[in-house]
């Protein structure tokens, strides 16, 4: 029995990551996961938030937004309402945490990297696509700092990617599209590194409680998908991928 | 080796739930978990949000706040800043989801139950204490509706409680106090029912990725703690506890 | 003829002030005046507002809030609305003025004391209870500064307490509860020191003008009540009470 | 010994009230009290706030603002800051209460009268000038309703005017200008009717407590000034003044 | 002498308009003008603003935003700041006026068309590109209403497009890129129909006054460019272009 | 055929400019254009916005507001709404640009001149009256700086004034009153210097496109009106007028 878009229960949607999508940002990608499309930019700022001042460490923070007609029904623009929704705040906090967990902030020095995730079309999984795409933008931005000689060690220690899984009509499914997501009894977002370790596990029984067995089979499904996504990230990054996670690698601007 | 407050690694802090803490709310408790103290009130309103109108179903929503000096260092009042922080929004959305997942909203009818969680002292675990305490306040509020004859079946299907677990100094610990929480590499909040099923699993590698094994032993620790908490909820609710989760029980106002 | 709660026209509700209600604040009390309950905390901050910088003088400021279900009908949370009401602003300005009037700010040095009054149950007289309770919290906070040797003279010059009086059904009443307050033709809040001098007199003819005679008898009633309240404050403060208002007393940390 | 502007201690500044200052408002005046200048408009709206709906009664509400350079030093525009200050809220609530206290809202019917007080020059006493001036604008607006036959009894029962008094350099003074006000130890605003009854008495010991004797002599000074101000209001209103406070007077549009 | 990007003084940048860029909106385009890229969506809502209710007429309104890294230097997100800038407001008002001027709102019926212009890369001329692109999105949205039989006459009466002109280093230039725009002494935005008539002429002497002669030669340059842009719009719209501006054309859903 | 107020098609309304309208501002006027009345104040602040710091140049910025009953129907106060409308922002940006264009900011030094335009009665043309009046207030403020010896060259290079023109009932009209403005098909605001050069040309086809011929005749009408307005500005400024636009004139405080 096939899913609404013809996929198998454990099949990802096609993922396409276009690097250097934007002329100005230090790192930028357009990530497309099926019909979900997110522009992720990484911007380097030469200062850190007050709580990080004087520590010698950098910071990574994220902002997330959807254009009003990213969705089936137009949503009100947050700039017009004058405030961000709880959902937006929750998502941008998640993206920031996921990226900070794989970066050695002390190797970054007192800089902030702003990750902006702007969803231009939303068909489910916008927060996980944002993490997967932002990672690539982040690596590009950091690499630009190395090329300029601003920093000399690769601060990114691991790959990180994210995917959603859920239970729809009593079936565990990988990478939910919007139609599936809005009918899911259980909905999970998993963030994992290339070492198979986790950074974030968020499971919610929207439609009622779920058992440990269901949870475990969802986790397995997610792990399968995340391994595939990390392969795509590696392919997209090409030679740059080899610099990630190599302990104490001294990186010269001429190398890159 | 003992923890900072003398507890074992798998030991909860003392929990005290005072019912009818407030003269006005349909349901209200003061929950104390060690030094963490939260006032939870449940207020019944005779209408539902627009998206629920005409469905015959009710709604449960939550708001969360800390008084400025609930914490070691005074925090700025959100009413003065003019907006709620992302953390606040995240927490109040979590509380609302947790309670809705154990309530049959169609048995509630077109009413909203407002759950207000006001933290008057914060020593870690305020969001989980809020869920545990609010559940009791919710049952009291719903029972008042039954006593008045407004509804005639108990809409609450399961007990729900929440606890935090985490890894501090490479040790898995149950029910983190603030000092432990701020030093945790991994931090999880688990919401579980009395059937041992999950409503929410949120694990975050604040200090870096964590393995599946660590995750599993944290889950076990949480389950142990949550079973103990549900026993406390049952004791506190007394005879009312027997009404929860009895399928299709017709409840008379004279019974209660 | 007795009042709704059985009191005489010139009788205060029972007042209970619990010191050190909060683990973190430099000073904190729970004040209960009948069913009205307010948590008052005094927090010391090591800087002053811009207009006070460089003067060598400190500052005392206050913030006031009610939890949503402090009242019969749930009120909307100001943090959610995104702004404080005029009533809130008026009250917190009053509390700040009342306390500043009895403190020698130059003895405090360039510090700010934040007074937070959080009403957890409201049955009339929340602003006057806030002043009466905050005074005790303030003395405790200031005393902590003396004990730590940060300041060496007691900057609090007088006791200050507050009470409401009003005319209900053509009778002058002391210390109105909510039911009386909402039916009062005239409503007054009086702030007085232990010397019998006034800091604030606010009388409002909500239901129409009032004569000078009525005003004078209300003032007398207030004075009677305020003297009684100050006795309670003195009892609650114990030996600390003797340090207040002693001109130029050099206070050693060992004394206290 | 004369005051800074040559007045006696019990002397009002010159007051000038220009009726029909604005082409559009139902009632409007420019009131000048010395160098203080306020435009007061009264606008009639054909509905009431939610809490007054269905009662058959009207409502009077007030808004107050200062243009940025009404003062010696330019103040920031509240529309730019995005919120009104506590001072502004306090003042506009006072103006509204003062006017409502002399109007029989049931004779007004379900209408709202908006009183806008815009200070174009501020030399102390802007809130009391606003009340004195708004009263005249209100009477004109109400009279227009009578002329149009919308209402047929004069709902204004009393004259109302306001003045400030205070203690400067140990002298009681009537009608403080800004220079005096900013040096006052005690500052009072009194609102009185033409019957010599009070609507609002607000006394504040900005610079420390004050005795009952001082309070009483300030009250006397205020009464003297308020009687003079009401005479000016009567002169300004001319024949219309005779309609105020005549019990149950049936007013025809042809009379006015 | 060539311009920074090699163009002649009267040469447009390459324009590319991609229709149906978005899966959900009734009309949507990506417009690229050199390096400036804007997503324009047209969303149909089945109600009108209050001022238009009951008139039988529709409404067209616009919102404009830039993603934070659309520009050389990252700009702060307006949703985070909590308000839209004056520049944003000015631009979205301009877009709305320009489109309304070529639509017979009574043929639209009581519907609102929301035009969202989200700039994903900004190299000058974002407001004019927004108008040019939105026109195409609007025609597609309106056509969808005709196809569905919701309306039966084409309400769009004229083509409308926009371009900027300016004086840089004493030379009149067509279609300024960001580098030119930020060095322009005079900067104009012109909105014109396919009949050669104007809807909006906005000329600003940023660097000082300009003469009538300069103004006239800028107008000529704009007219030349606008004629070329309208040809591009016609090509992009294909057969749909023939339906615009045909008086009282009854359009059947089968025609389109 | 006469206009609604009896004027000829090319006739300005009577203009009256009262200098030194306000006691405190460095420059201030009341400008009356027919029934439109605006208070314009110019306030000097001894610092510049961040983007201008260290440049040695000054800045001129403007804020605009209407009192609520400046208009036929009371409008909501922006301070109450918590934000400025798009119209307000558009107007205040226009006023600022117009004045900056005639001032040599480097002769001003690192100072900001705040131009506040507060409309106390609005009968059309409030933005153009604001520009015309603010110019006079600006000259007075700058002159005060010269008199005090703070600056020694006149930084104002040109007179600047503004007027509206429009097409009503197919007739080109100069200086529209509100009634005309709200019925205009085309509405233009023109800002011109005493040299006959333009600073701002804003034409909008509110009711549909307009031809180049119509535009040109509107421009001519505007030029006629603006020349007359500048004569009035010169008369009002008296001897001060001679100092404007005299290249490199060294101005002594004794001269003025």
UniProtKB/TrEMBL annotation, chains A, B, C, D, E, F:
Binding site for phosphate: 87, 125-127
PROSITE patterns: RIBONUCLEASE_PH (PS01277)
GO BP: any one term: rRNA 3'-end processing
Domain of life from the UniProt record: Bacteria
SUPFAM superfamilies: Ribonuclease PH domain 2-like, Ribosomal protein S5 domain 2-like
Entry EC number(s): 2.7.7.56
Reactions it catalyzes: tRNA(n+1) + phosphate = tRNA(n) + a ribonucleoside 5'-diphosphate
Matches recorded under CDD domains: RNase_PH_bact (cd11362)
Gene Ontology MF annotations: 3'-5'-RNA exonuclease activity; tRNA binding; tRNA nucleotidyltransferase activity
Subunit structure: Homohexameric ring arranged as a trimer of dimers.
Function: Phosphorolytic 3'-5' exoribonuclease that plays an important role in tRNA 3'-end maturation. Removes nucleotide residues following the 3'-CCA terminus of tRNAs; can also add nucleotides to the ends of RNA molecules by using nucleoside diphosphates as substrates, but this may not be physiologically important. Probably plays a role in initiation of 16S rRNA degradation (leading to ribosome degradation) during starvation.
Protein name: Ribonuclease PH
Record organism: Aceticella autotrophica
Lineage summary: Bacteria, Bacillati, Bacillota, Clostridia, Thermoanaerobacterales
């Amino acid at each position: 029995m096939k899913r609404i878009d013809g996929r198998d229960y454990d099949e990802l949607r096609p993922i396409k990551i276009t690097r250097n999508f934007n002329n100005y940002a230090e790192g930028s990608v357009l990530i497309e996961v099926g019909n979900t499309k997110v522009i992720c930019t990484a911007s380097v700022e030469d200062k850190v938030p007050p709580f990080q001042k004087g520590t010698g460490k950098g910071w990574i923070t994220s902002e997330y937004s959807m254009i009003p007609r990213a969705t089936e029904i137009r949503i009100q623009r947050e700039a017009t309402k004058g405030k961000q929704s709880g959902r937006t705040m929750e998502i941008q906090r998640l993206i920031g945490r996921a990226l900070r967990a794989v970066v050695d902030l002390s190797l970054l020095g007192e800089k902030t990297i702003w990750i902006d995730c702007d969803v231009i079309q939303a068909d489910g999984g916008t927060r996980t696509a944002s993490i997967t795409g932002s990672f690539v933008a982040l690596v590009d931005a950091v690499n630009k700092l190395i090329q300029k000689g601003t920093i000399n060690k690769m601060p990114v220690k691991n790959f990180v990617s994210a995917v959603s899984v859920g239970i729809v009509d009593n079936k565990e499914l990988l990478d939910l599209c919007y139609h599936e997501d809005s009918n899911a009894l259980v909905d999970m977002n998993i963030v994992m590194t290339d070492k198979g370790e986790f950074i974030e596990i968020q499971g919610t029984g929207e439609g009622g409680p779920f058992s440990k067995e269901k949870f475990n089979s969802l986790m397995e499904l997610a792990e399968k998908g995340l391994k595939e996504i990390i392969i795509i990230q590696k392919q997209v990054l090409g030679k740059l991928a080899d610099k990630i996670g190599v302990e104490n690698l001294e990186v010269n601007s001429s190398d890159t």
